[in-house]
Automatic annotation (TrEMBL):
Keyword tags: ATP-binding, Kinase, Magnesium, Metal-binding, Nucleotide-binding, Phosphoprotein, Transferase
Name this protein carries in UniProt: Polyphosphate kinase
Domain Polyphosphate kinase middle: 135-315
Gene name of the record: ppk
Domain Polyphosphate kinase C-terminal: 344-510, 517-679
Length: 695
């Protein structure tokens, strides 16, 4: 007797992924939209102009550099969305030129006039009066001229090395003796302020008016002093971006520290990947630059007005509070103090877990105090901690050094391969070693990105473990700017898991199974896919099902495919993704049950938190991992299952307002476009709640 087979699910479509690089450009476009938003305080708009520029610098130094390197191999490699590297580079160039144009015009035509209305002006040399010009000539003579080095280009002088991200003047001069023309380069020094105060008051922060002259304008006005006896024909500003995506050859027989220091020295000389020029750039000079830098015309970005608007941070730093967001004071978590008196973190954790959400909860009076109290407590025997990025004057590092000097066993895993923080982390590692800390540099082939701390304390003859697991770095400065979550706990299962994890990081353990943790590179992808499939099974059997995830980026194709399958099975999926998203939501028959939104605002949404309805027995997870190949395959990452009922409720209370209808956010369409919806400011609401609690 024939049996009727179940209908087959159609295969997933080939065009189900969005391009990673174009999605990142869409994220930076959302940053630019904040700079264009006239409802924001004026200097906050200046800040977002600077952030957009520095974001784009790093994108070219790392992502575009990587694409160009792979393209140079001649291999035909397609991205998951089917584009060749050449096709991606062409689309990226066109999109970037459009964004750069918008960025420059926002500054020139909108923000600059508004700054002038507020007494903040950027002027050019020809705008100066006689007295101001005299003062600037003196400043040039005393502070600038001695550090300038004009470099000629001729048969006896090869084309000079152009350092990455430096501003440069390309100068054409003529010798009146024989009429010959020559090219020269003058580097705009980066150890002199980019914007020079104009006027007798100088840079008086108390003065509500502030006028600045760009340093390159001052140098250009005095070029004849750099080329005496020659006629200066023209000058043009340019800027080069170089490949900064290091590939450290990790050999088990070589000191990783030495290998990294060698690669850092090489990074300065990485190949050029972008040439920024002003719109007035002379074509003949441009051709010289392209030839000498071994670049192509499509590597050029033409920028209206000033180059390097990342330097606008100097304007944001002006003491003009009325042009900025209202300052706020982070709240000490209510369970960590009694009135104005700090409580013992250890005593508090014995009563239950503490969930902290930065910047609304103070980092200094929670995570930092946890490490500081451990360092000073004579009952604490050991502190073990991972450090990925920290601040220049890190109180965490200071506390770890004091703990080691007090005779405690201190183990610190310093990730010296943290991009652009390598030199700082090498310095920290050596300081910790000198103090007697056991310093580990991580595992060969992996970056250690997890944010974990373990304190071992003797209590009435018994050892007890206290832990912190977070989504953000142990950095008190970024903790005031980044939205992050962390759990402080004395749960014995978490303590046992962190003990096992540190043994893996510092020794030869190959443990992959944990009680309360998922750990990459072995456990997070498979663990999450199983939980996503579990939701689909619940939905198929009529039980409650649903998935909510908040993260910085979603790129991993296997997890995206699992989410598609869950959506096909009727599971509602809500994703809050600040940056890159390669998933297409809202596609009929594929992802109509998936919604993707992005919040970009005053604070950088940085936490990673995931919840699964699980048939009515909800699970909550938080940790350090975004859902990208690098996080899941090439990093040590940790996701913690949150078991404390109060902490789970507070996680829900933190995530629910961000996902609620009517929140100011961007929503991703099935065609890859992002649509802005104005509404309630989720971050401002959180700040008001904190203020009410503090009041």
């Amino acid at each position: 007797m024939a049996t009727e087979s179940a209908p087959r699910t159609p295969p997933l479509p080939a065009d189900r992924f969005l391009n990673r690089e174009l999605s990142w450009l869409d994220f930076n476009a959302r940053v630019l939209e904040l700079a264009e938003d006239a409802s924001l305080p004026l200097l906050e708009r200046v800040k977002f102009l600077a952030i957009f520029a520095s974001n784009l610098d790093e994108f070219y130094m790392v992502r575009i550099a990587g694409l160009k390197r792979r393209h140079s191999t001649g291999l035909t490699v397609r991205s998951p969305d089917g584009l060749t590297i050449r096709e991606q580079l062409e689309l990226i160039t066109a999109r970037t030129q459009d964004l750069v144009q918008r960025h420059a015009e926002t500054f020139l035509k909108d923000v600059t006039p508004r700054l002038e209305d507020q007494g903040i002006r950027i002027v050019h040399w020809e705008d100066l009066g006689d007295e101001d010009a005299r003062r600037q000539r003196e400043y040039f003579r005393d502070q600038v001229f001695p550090v300038l080095t004009p470099l000629a280009v001729d048969p006896a002088h090869p084309f000079p090395y152009i350092s990455g991200l430096s501003l440069n003047l390309a100068v054409m001069v003529r010798d009146p003796a024989d009429g010959s023309s020559h090219f020269a380069r003058v580097k705009v020094p980066n150890n002199v302020p980019r914007f020079i105060p104009v006027g007798a008051g100088g840079a008086n922060d108390r003065d509500p008016t502030a006028t600045f002259l760009p340093l390159e304008d001052l140098i250009a006005a005095h070029l004849p002093q750099l080329f005496p006896g020659l006629e200066v024909l023209s000058h043009h500003l340019f800027r080069v971006t170089r490949n900064a995506d290091m590939e450290v050859e990790e050999d088990r027989d070589e000191d990783l520290l030495q290998a990294l220091e060698r690669e850092l020295a090489r990074r300065r000389f990485g190949p050029a990947v972008r040439l920024e020029v002003t719109e007035s750039m002379d074509q003949q000079i441009l051709e010289v630059l392209l030839s000498e830098l071994e670049m192509k015309p499509h590597d050029v970005l033409h920028v209206p007005g000033l180059l390097d608007l990342a330097s606008l941070w100097a304007l944001y730093d002006l003491d003009r509070p009325e042009l900025k967001d209202e300052p706020f004071v982070p709240l000490t978590h209510p369970r960590l103090s009694e009135g104005e008196t700090p409580k013992s973190v250890f005593a508090t954790l014995r009563e239950g877990d503490v969930l902290v959400q930065h910047p609304y909860h103070s980092f200094a009076t929670s995570v930092q105090r946890f490490i500081e109290q451990a360092a000073a407590d004579p009952q604490v025997l050991a502190i073990k901690q991972t450090l990925y990025r920290t601040s220049g004057d890190s109180p965490i590092v200071t506390a770890l050094i004091e703990a080691a000097e007090a005779g405690k066993q201190v183990v610190v895993l310093v990730e010296i391969k943290a991009r652009f923080d390598e030199e700082a982390n090498i310095t920290w590692a050596r300081s910790l070693e000198r103090a007697g800390c056991h310093v580990v540099y991580g595992l060969v082939g992996l970056k250690t990105h997890c944010k974990t701390a373990l304190v071992v304390r003797r209590e009435q003859g018994v050892l007890r473990r206290y832990c912190h697991i977070g989504t953000g770095n142990y950095n008190p400065k970024t903790a005031r700017l980044y939205e992050d979550l962390g759990i402080l706990t004395a749960d014995p299962r978490v303590g046992a898991d962190l003990t096992d994890l540190f043994n893996t990081l510092t020794g030869y353990s190959r443990q992959t199974n944990y009680r309360t943790l998922m750990v990459a590179p072995h456990g997070i992808r498979t663990g999450l896919i199983e939980k996503i499939r579990r939701e689909a099974r619940h939905a198929a059997e009529g039980r409650p099902a649903g998935i909510r995830m908040k993260m910085n980026s979603l790129v991993d194709e296997r997890i995206i495919d699992a989410l598609y399958e869950a959506s096909r099975g009727g599971v509602p999926v809500e994703l809050l993704i600040r940056g890159i998203c390669a998933l297409r939501p809202g596609v009929p028959g594929l992802s109509e049950n998936i919604r993707v939104r992005s919040i970009v605002g005053r604070f950088l949404e940085h936490s990673r938190v995931m919840s699964f309805v699980n048939g009515g027995d909800p699970e909550w997870w938080l940790g350090s991992a975004d859902l990208m190949h690098r996080n899941l395959d090439r990093r040590v990452e940790v996701l913690l299952r949150v078991c404390d009922e109060t902490a789970r409720r507070q996680l829900h209370e933190a995530l629910e307002p961000a996902l609620a209808p009517g929140v100011r956010s961007w929503e991703l369409g099935s065609d890859g476009s992002w649509t802005f919806t104005d509404g309630r400011d989720y971050q401002a609401e959180r700040l008001r709640q904190v203020g009410e609690l503090a009041g």
